C-alpha cells in the first residue's frame, strides 16, 4: 500500500503567507500529523501533492520513501491525485488517499479502514461520519440496498440530499488500477472546470464495482482546516486528546482548560501540572514533580524526579536534577542544575551575549539567593551559596568560567 496526501490548496481562507498544511497544532504541523499516522500503520511509501506557492521555506522533515510532486495548475482533487501517478510508476497495489488539512484522523481509524478495504477486496473503501449539521460536507448517497452510489457535494445537493447526515470524511482506500482508470474518464465541471476525486465513486458504482465504507463514531476526525477559526477548533480538540492521554497515564492536571501540553512531551506518574502552565515540544518531566501555576517549560528541557517548578518560571534547553526547587519568577536558559538545588525568587541566567548562548552549571546542593543574576558561562560549585542580589559573571582575567 502507498499513501497519497493531497495538500495543494492555496490556503485562501487562512489569509497566510505559507501553505495551510504547514500551520502548527501544539508544536507539529498538520502535515506532520498525517505523515505520523501513515507511518504508524506501516505505510512507508507515499506522495505529497502540493503547489509551489510558499512551500520552499518548509522545515518539515519528510520520511524516507515519501516524495513531493507539484500540481502546477490547480484543477481539483481528482487532477491532484493524477499528479501522484508519475511518482508511483507502475504501482498496482492499494492507495490510501488523505488530505493534508485533516490532522485529527486517528491511527485506529486508519487501521480499520485499511483492514476493511483488504478483507472486502473493494475497489474503493471510504470513511464516513454522521453529523447533525452537515453543512459544507459532501453527502453519502445510498440506494435502497444501502449501497453507496455517489458522493454529492454541498453546492450540488438537492434539498433532500442536504438533509442526509452521513458525510464524506475525505479518507479513501482505492485499488490503484481502478482509481486511475476512473480519473482518466472524468470530465471537468463546475465554475472552475475542476476534476473532483469524489466523482470516482459515482464512476465505479455505475460499473458495478464494489464500494465499501467504515463509519467513525467521532465526527471530529473529519474536521478539515480551511480557516483560522477551523485551526483554533482543531487545536482545542488536539489539546484535549493530549491532556486525556496524560491523565489516563497517571499525570494530575488540575485545570485542563488552562493547561497546554505540546506533542513530543513525556511526563512521569504522579506529577501534578497546575493551571496556566505551558509545556512545549521536546520536553521530558520525571515522576512526582510539581509544575506551575503560570510556568513555561520550553523545548530541550529535562526535569528529573520530584522537582518543584513554581509560578512564573520559564526554563529552556536546561536539565534540572532530582529534588531541585525553583519556586518563583525565574528564568533558566541553557542551565545544568544539580541535585537538591534551591533557586531563589527572581533568579536569572543571562545565557545570551548577543551572538551565542552559554551554559550555566549549578552544583549539587547549591543555594542561589533571591535576585541572583548568573552571567554565563559560569559554574557554581557543590554546596555554594550566593547572596540575594548577587551578580556572578565570567572571569575577565582568565577568560575561563567564574567558579563560586
Describe this entry's structure for a reader.
- By secondary structure, the protein is of the alpha/beta class.
- The protein is 20% helix and 30% strand.
- The protein contains eight helices and 35 strands.
- The strands form seven sheets. An eight-stranded parallel sheet has the order 12-15-18-21-24-27-30-33, with helices on one face.
- Helix 6 (176-185) packs across helix 7 (199-206).
- It is elongated, with a radius of gyration of 27 Å.
- It starts with a strand and ends with a strand.
- The model is unreliable at 396-400 (pLDDT under 50).
Spatial sequence of strands, sheet with the most strands: 12-15-18-21-24-27-30-33
**SS element count, helices:** 8
Count every beta strand, where a strand is a DSSP E run of 2 or more residues. Answer: 35
In whole angstroms, the N-to-C terminal distance is: 62 Å
How much of the sequence lies in strands comes to 25-35%
Rg, Å, rounded? 27 Å
- Identify low-pLDDT runs: 396-400
Structural class: alpha/beta
- Mean of the pLDDT scores? 93
- How is the biggest beta sheet arranged? 8 strands, parallel
Amount of helix: 10-25%
Shape: elongated
Amino acid at each position: 500500500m502507498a499513501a497519497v496526501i493531497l495538500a495543494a490548496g492555496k490556503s485562501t481562507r487562512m489569509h497566510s503567507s505559507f501553505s495551510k498544511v504547514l500551520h502548527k497544532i501544539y508544536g507539529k504541523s498538520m502535515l506532520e500529523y498525517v505523515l505520523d499516522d501513515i507511518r504508524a500503520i506501516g505505510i512507508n511509501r507515499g506522495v505529497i501533492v502540493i503547489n509551489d506557492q510558499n512551500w520552499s521555506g518548509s522545515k518539515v522533515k519528510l520520511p524516507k520513501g515519501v516524495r513531493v510532486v507539484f500540481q502546477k495548475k490547480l484543477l481539483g482533487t481528482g487532477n491532484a491525485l493524477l499528479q501522484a501517478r508519475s511518482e508511483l510508476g507502475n504501482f498496482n497495489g492499494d492507495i490510501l488517499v488523505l488530505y493534508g488539512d485533516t490532522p485529527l484522523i486517528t491511527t485506529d481509524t486508519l487501521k480499520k479502514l485499511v483492514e476493511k478495504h483488504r478483507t472486502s477486496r473493494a475497489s474503493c473503501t471510504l470513511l464516513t461520519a454522521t453529523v447533525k449539521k452537515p453543512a459544507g460536507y459532501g453527502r453519502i448517497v445510498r440506494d435502497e440496498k444501502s449501497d453507496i452510489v455517489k458522493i454529492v457535494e454541498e453546492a450540488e445537493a438537492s434539498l433532500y440530499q442536504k438533509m442526509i447526515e452521513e458525510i464524506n470524511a475525505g479518507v479513501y482506500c482505492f485499488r490503484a488500477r481502478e482509481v486511475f482508470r476512473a480519473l482518466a474518464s472524468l470530465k471537468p465541471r463546475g465554475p472552475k472546470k475542476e476534476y473532483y476525486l469524489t466523482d470516482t465513486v459515482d464512476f465505479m458504482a455505475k460499473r458495478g464495482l464494489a464500494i465499501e465504507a467504515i463509519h467513525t463514531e467521532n465526527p471530529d476526525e473529519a474536521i478539515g482546516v480551511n480557516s483560522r477559526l477551523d485551526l483554533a477548533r482543531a487545536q482545542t480538540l488536539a489539546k484535549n486528546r493530549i491532556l486525556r492521554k496524560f491523565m489516563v497515564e497517571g499525570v494530575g492536571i488540575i485545570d485542563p482548560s488552562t493547561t497546554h501540553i505540546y506533542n513530543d512531551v513525556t511526563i512521569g506518574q504522579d506529577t501534578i501540572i497546575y493551571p496556566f502552565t505551558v509545556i512545549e515540544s521536546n520536553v521530558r518531566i520525571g515522576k512526582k514533580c510539581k509544575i506551575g501555576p503560570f510556568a513555561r517549560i520550553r523545548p530541550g528541557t529535562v526535569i528529573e524526579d520530584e522537582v518543584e517548578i513554581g509560578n512564573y518560571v520559564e526554563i529552556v534547553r536546561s536539565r534540572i536534577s532530582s529534588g531541585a526547587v525553583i519556586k518563583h519568577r525565574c528564568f533558566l536558559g541553557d542551565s545544568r542544575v544539580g541535585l537538591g538545588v534551591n533557586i531563589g525568587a527572581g533568579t536569572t541566567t543571562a545565557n545570551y551575549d548577543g551572538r551565542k548562548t552559554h551554559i550555566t552549571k549549578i552544583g549539587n546542593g547549591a543555594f542561589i539567593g533571591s535576585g541572583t543574576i548568573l552571567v554565563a558561562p559560569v559554574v557554581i560549585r557543590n554546596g555554594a551559596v550566593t547572596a540575594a542580589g548577587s551578580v556572578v559573571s565570567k572571569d575577565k582575567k582568565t577568560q575561563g568560567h567564574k567558579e563560586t
